[in-house]
Amino acid sequence: MTPSTHATHLPDIQAARLPPEEYARRFADATPRFTSSQALLEAERCLYCFDAPCATACPTSIDVPSFIKRIGDGNLRGAARTILDSNPLGGMCARVCPTENLCEAVCVRNTQEDRPVAIGRLQRFAVDALLEGPRPQIFSRAAATGKTIAVVGAGPAGLSCAHTLAREGHSVVVFDARPKAGGLNEYGLASYKTPGNFAQAEVQWLMGLGGIEIRNDWKLESTAQLEALRQEYDAVFLGMGLSSTAALGVPGETLKGVQDAVDFISALRQCDDLSQLPVGRRVIVIGGGMTAVDASVQSKLLGAKVVHMVYRRGPEQMSASKAEQEWAQTNGVVLHQWLAPVEIVGVDGNASAVRFAEQALVDGKLTPTGREITWEADVVLKAIGQTLGNPLLAQAGFTLQDGRIATDVDGKTNIDGVWAGGDCRSGGLDLTVEAVEHGKLSAKAIHAKLHARA
Questions:
Q1: Predicted TM-score (pTM) above 0.90
Q2: Which regions of the chain carry the CATH code 3.50.50.60?
Q3: How many CA atoms within 13 Å lie on the side-chain side of 73?
Q4: Which stretches of the chain drop beneath a pLDDT of 70?
């Protein structure tokens, strides 16, 4: 019997699918930190290359050989300083950065031993040692400049910008729409990547420098608000990320049980008791990026019986790294490629299945082959990318490119005194580490302009 012929459809969406003690085990740290002995042994594998390719491959230009050498010498504080001087969110980036595609991909040990130095885990080891130590603050502020900068968005780009400006002696007010600072780090990443409330611990470390104020529950919703910021502050940085999920554009998208993957992840991250979080027995996640992987794996960890992750192109085009794809499969997620959603089938207002059309490349274009497949589903999670979704930016006169704010290399927009970075900025890789670099570069440009004006 096909889903559309059911007289009634009661979706199987329940909480407490697992024994209570199982949740803590399943959502424990996916990559446990190195012990001191493990870190020392791994650090000794580094060849400390001159003009090291790993440092060049890092979007924030961390001096990788230098910090690893310090770990080998037992100087963890010095190692952490080297990291955080280039990347003030180095602790989070060590946890979530796709190092297998960046610094570790170009490590010379790949050719010698078929295994790179574990740069990301060493970075985490050094930063964690600092943040958990008795003297976590290693930076101090320059003399107060009397200048105040407004930062819109307390995500990776905004926090990086704020911290860099505060080190230069400026005062910074960060406005954020959410109850907690952190942006994607707090609301959008898999909890097994950032256990122990690390996102908030990192925010507190950043705030410990001084000179930074965060005002929560403030959303940029009008051109009048933007103009007020421009008038009241010496410069404005926009780092508000992406607020809207792209639509599938297929029938049935508004049925109950159809949800944005980012909303599912956010609810999970803010849930104090995972046993009370409902999950479907049969889940279909549509998308091929890291958000799709995080949503798929966490659905499985919550007790979903079957999780299909479906992408319309081939595995090589998936934005989720090969390591992420393998992680999904290791956790029981079934990956499918070359399938595009045609319809979300509904019964009694609830999603009951998704119909897909097989795709093939014909003269470089995705073309249906004529074959279709349908899988039953209680929950359908959309993870096909996000959009800026803020019409006031065009109304305010910003130059937009592909729906995002166009800037120069330092993040300067076409509107005087306004910079932008992170996911809301056009171009780039949509990575946390890149957003950090955007914030840092814009802060340096803002400081240079304010210093020249003084």
A1: yes
A2: 148-243+388-453, 246-385
A3: 11
A4: 1-9, 389, 454
